[in-house]
Amino acid sequence: MQMEEKISTIVKDAFSIDASVTITRPDVQFGDYATNVAMQLAKPLGKSPRDIANLLAAKLQEDDDFQEVTVAGPGFINIRVQDAKLMELAGRLNDSKERLGKKIVIETNNPNPFKAMHVGHAFNAILADTIANLLAADGADLHRVSYHGDIGSHVGKSMWAILRYLDGDIAKLHAIQPAEQNAFMSKMYASGAKAYKEDETAKAAINDLARQSFTLEDPFYREVYETCRAWSFEQLDAIVALLGNAPTERKYLESEADALGVETVRNHIGDVFIESDGALVFPGSKYGSFDNVFVGSNGYGLYGARDVGLMRLKNDDYHAEKSYIITAEEQRAYFKGAIKAAEMCLPDLEGVTVNIPTGTMLLSTGKMSSRTGEVVEISWLFDQIRRAIADRGGEATPDIIAGALRYQFLKIRIGSDVVFDIEEAVSLHGNTGSYLQYAYARARSILNKATTTGEWKGEPLNEYERNLVRKMTEFTDVVTQAKRELLPHYICTYLYELAQEFNRFYEKNKVIGSDEEKKRLFLVARYAETLKNGLTILSIAAPEKM
Description:
The chain is an alpha/beta fold. It folds into 3 domains: 3-81, 2-Layer Sandwich (Gyrase A, domain 2), CATH 3.30.1360.70; 103-367, 3-Layer(aba) Sandwich (Rossmann fold); 381-537, Isoleucyl-tRNA Synthetase, Domain 1, CATH 1.10.730. It has 21 helices and 14 strands. The strands form 4 sheets. Strands 6-5-4-10-11 form a 5-stranded parallel β-sheet. It has a 3-stranded antiparallel β-sheet with strand order 1-3-2. A 3-stranded antiparallel β-sheet has the order 7-8-9.
């Protein structure tokens, strides 16, 4: 029986009242658990909360699982459980499934082809992938998808520069080596973005090339377009895998969402959209967003129309209860309007799509921009992390690089800005992914050196042993909170604190060769398992050695 249920039963037996019991974790000197249920009961029972607490404490003390129950302050009940019960709860895998069977769709990456994938894309992809892990752990019938812009203005900018570079010779394109393709696409987009901003003649040409991305009527254009789009997706899939993300089951493209979105918008002129100089506008300012053009005066769909089309496509494919989109904070207002417009057009979608805005990803050079092409490519960051790991004498395996990168993004509460410090990310000291991977490898090293297996037969636990076990009992509660709120930083904070608690235990307790070797090996094994389970939820590898 769970602690809350046990106390609720005692309250029911004592006072014939159903109480919702909340359990908290007090500082270690006060006990293992605490509850303020006596103060909640004071008003309905018309009794002093301390009197109620004293009565409940006496009842709780009769339970064999509880070693000591005390009353503090106006009526807080502090509970210290028996070592055997504490050990039973230590590191227990979380089995609550609040979203069991609920069909959920989540976009776990959305970089556009015809551009290089940059650090901001990686930030959103890692957050989305880990939120997906939490949803899956919570029992959801989960579908990971992605969405990519393969038409429109950014394609026109890239194609303008690429076509100028090729000068009619397709062989130049095919001569570009795979390792150089991502940098080539980045350079081309930056060149086109600059020209669009500075040269009116180029701007007109780029607008026409953007239009052609919808039609692909020119054979040479089509061949270049399809080749570069294929390059982009090959690179994207490879990079997303290096980030540690799980594969997606479906790629949605703006080119397939566009027509459906434009059709939906046109079907709701007057009741949802207003016509202005030939353009179709959603009056988002009425709904906490901003007025936004969904279909241009030229008849082509813009981002809003495509997002409406995408919501229809996802609904047709999955009929999900929830559909999550993780985007940068600056897109919050846009998505508020896009989602509202879709719900007004398609009432069945009301409450389905949820936008989770992230903070801003910063490096020492400041905010990155994808619209100007002045970006920090993810390949550059991979290289910097690789070098930093090598400089500290480590082996820069893909798992170690991904672990350092993922943890730096995940340890900050979603919505807060992240300042990425490369040297900090790879440090074996402090709150980093590398530190936690090293902590796991260290525990495994202890276990691998042992000539016997760990076992606990109910022997007493000393202060440091007990504190480690107590910390492990928090695992299931932390995971439950992270799943409920879709906030992975809770798990990061917990794993760091757990590793620190282990360090205190190990400093004071000899393991191999001690008189209590079997018991302590048992604790080390349980700790390593708990640490690995937490890292797994974050999609961070737990290496056997570093």
